[in-house]
Amino acid sequence: MITEISIKNFKVLKNIELNNLKRITLVSGRNNIGKSTLLEAIFLYMDHSSGESFGKLTSFRGTSGNTAENLWEPLFYQMDTDTCIQIKVNNDNLVGALQYKRDNNYLPSNISGMSEDILAQFRMNTKESYSLCYSYVENGYSEDGHFSLNGSSILRDIKTSLPGNEIKLMKPTQYKVYFRDFLTIVNELGKIELSGEKSILIKALQEMDPLIEDIVTLSVQGIIQLYIRISGKLMPLQYAGDGIVKILSICLSIMRRKGGIVLIDELENGLHYSMYGKLWKMIDHISKRSSCQVIATTHSYELISSVRNSINNTDDFCYNRIGKNKDRIVSYRYDYSMLDAALEAEMEVR
Q1: Residue 290 has pLDDT above 90, yes or no
Q2: In what order do the strands lie in the sheet with 293-298?
Q3: What span, in angstroms and rounded, lies between the C-alpha atoms of 39 and 87?
Q4: Tens of pLDDT along 79-126?
Q5: Residue 59 three-state SS
Q6: Could you please report the per-residue DSSP string of 143-175?
């Protein structure tokens, strides 16, 4: 579990630290203060060795483009690629440090399995632009590498401290953005059913709506579709409403990432405020059972206040409000009792 994170020169975050994070961590703050950026920093840290991570970050924001200007420069504070990005994380008492910087001098060479013609194209493009250099260290393990661009392709060149240049696996991490991705829901539901855990999923959904009896995958005219059984009747999942689809997606994400991390931006979106208390109970139960950390952001006072009396073990929860202190973005941490007292006093905590 991530308990501490320090971020420097990443997007809108010049320098921020969050400490004593919990299994369930909720983050709030005004628009453009850095809530989503915090989640993106965690995602990038956990997925740093993959060249696909940069494209995923742009897709989270609904942008595209495979150039240094689109993929890499927006990652740097004020798009200043001469100032290093630094992300440090305490993960299960192992402190890791990730750093990115611009490298104008690196040229790809001797990449195993790549033809000389393709390698020459990467060299030419890197000469005209630049590569992204990164380093990662954790408890005696290290990675040093470069990412280079050529049209729609990203070339990864990494050297590690492990025999055979093996790359250490990170925790399974998912950044939740698209809750109506039915193909992903179908695939993850199938894996949950194969694991014998579908009854746990259905029980969690019944906390939200007691009339839910089952969710099944059917082939209709050769097309795989999801159906939900409510009061003995089957209906397409799409007709059950965005709330149920989102709850199902969250449950599946947590259950499928045992020992991992699920990052959820604007947790309240698509849900009626009357469901918030049940939502917290579901997240509390499923995340504990799966040993999965959930870090979510919100704008909603109702979502924050509904935490009260919804978390079974209050030591597993913390709330962080991101705000400005003079010109610096900082995090103000509340444990459960502090948040409860602030809400009781009707203080503004968002």
Answers
A1: yes
A2: 173-176, 261-264, 293-298, 24-28, 317-325, 328-335
A3: 12
A4: 999 999 999 999 999 999 999 999 999 887 766 667 777 777 778 778
A5: helix
A6: EEEEEEEETTEEEEEEEESSGGGPPPPPPPEEE
Q: Two tokens at 114?
A: 């790549």
Q: Which residues pair with 17 in a beta bridge?
A: 6
Six-digit token pair at 314?
A: 């209050």
> What is residue 76's DSSP assignment?
B
- Structure tokens, 187: 């695939």
- Tell me the CA distances in angstroms from 82 to 8, 48, 109, 155, 189, one per residue in order: 13, 19, 24, 21, 45
Cβ atoms 135, 170 nearer than 8 A: no
Distance CA 178, CA 219 (A): 23
Residue tagged 């942008």 (tokens): 63
Q: Do residues 37 and 173 lie in contact, with contact meaning Cβ atoms separated by under 8 Å?
A: no
Residue 284 parent element (H or E)? helix 276-290
CATH number listed for the domain at residues 174-344: 3.40.50.300
10 Å CB burial of residue 139 (0-12, 13-18, 19+) is: exposed
Tens of pLDDT, residues 301-332: 999 999 998 998 999 999 999 998 877 899 99
Residues 6 or more apart in contact with residue 155 via CB below 8 angstroms: 51, 108, 111, 114, 122, 147, 148, 149
* SS3 annotation, 176-204: ECCCCCHHHHHHHHHHHHHCCCHHHHHHH
Indicate the residue type of 248. Answer: L
Domain ranges of the chain: 48-169, 174-344
* Full-model pTM: 0.93
In the chain, what's the furthest Cα-to-Cα distance?
A: 68
